[in-house]
Amino acid sequence: xxxxxxxxxxxxxxxxxxxxxxxxxxxxxxxxxxxxxxxxxxxxxxxxxxxxxxxxxxxxxxxxxxxxxxxxxxxxxxxxxxxxxxxxxxxxxxxxxxxxxxxxxxxxxxxxxxxxxxxxxxxxxxxxxxxxxxxxxxxxxxxxxxxxxxxxxxxxxxxxxxxxxxxxxxxxxxxxxxxxxxxxxxxxxxxxxxxxxxxxxxxxxxxxxxxxxxxxxxxxxxxxxxxxxxxxxxxxxxxxxxxxxxxxxxxxxxxxxxxxxxxxxxxxxxxxxxxxxxxxxxxxxxxxxxxxxxxxxxxxxxxxxxxxxxxxxxxxxxxxxxxxxxxxxxxxxxxxxxxxxxxxxxxxxxxxxxxxxxxxxxxxxxxxxx
Length: 370
Prior knowledge:
The protein is of the alpha/beta class. The protein has 2 domains: about 15-145, Rossmann fold (3-Layer(aba) Sandwich); about 180-320, Hect, E3 ligase catalytic domain fold (Alpha-Beta Complex). It has helices at about 30-50, 75-85, 100, 105-115, 135-165, 205-215, 220-230, 245-255, 300-315, 345-350, and strands spanning about 15-25, 60-65, 90-95, 120-125, 130, 180-185, 195-200, 260-265, 270, 280-285, 290-295. A hairpin with a 6-residue loop joins strand 9 (about 270) and strand 10 (about 280-285). It is elongated, with a radius of gyration of 28 Å.
């Protein structure tokens, strides 16, 4: 355990105000990780206080941040830490390691500097960082570099593992509607199911998928097919935000190549913004998209798949849609895409074919509307 070069001291006339901060990144980590961090920080505090300190002389606040990345600069929990530093709410902040506060080199430096300027001491026992020591900036710099490299190598290991699964024909990613997962070794009373998992066709759901393709190929609109799926209470993926089927959901089924026995992965990839730490999905380069033939997973014929996709293509308002960095709404959050956001695409709107019928952007008025 870290030994403090500058012992803790109790303020005169009042209690010592302490914050313990704990965080872990994803649902894959143990939920008990938060409690373990808090326990370790409390144990460190107890052993570091002056002998004879009474419980009434110390107040401890706890801020928990479960299942959120430390690379994200703007988080509810860390924002509370910032507010507490600015108001000088605490005398001491303890986190197991600096990456629990931030796994973001720039923001970690800003937080520690702000705390020191406000007279708030920050200690990270596992990193051997104590802002009461003159060399804390060097230690923080080295530890943040190590934490960043750890994240980098973890991502590489995950990608390598996925490539290995793909090469063996195993399942990668979420389960697609129409398929079910088969484990290599079934679960027992004492052991969970073992990987790798393999996809196989769920015949009951596959029959509905085939009918979706047939209906679209026959000329039904995606909205009508969505209403039909709602009427038969066909379940969407468990991670869907809404239960009702939309035209976009139906089109997503039609576009999925897996249903014709051809799998693609990483069509979109996560890219982290350096300043905010948040990630966004961007279109991957075509030559970097892994593919594989999976004839055992074919649900529809090539003829039916291409026919349905041809129908959807002909219904496009913009026959040559712009996507990626060239899109005029690139970087605009969805909350800002209001009823008249189509104005930003006015150039494309003017070139839209007249065969689009009576379609017009939401919020617009035709000349016959008065």
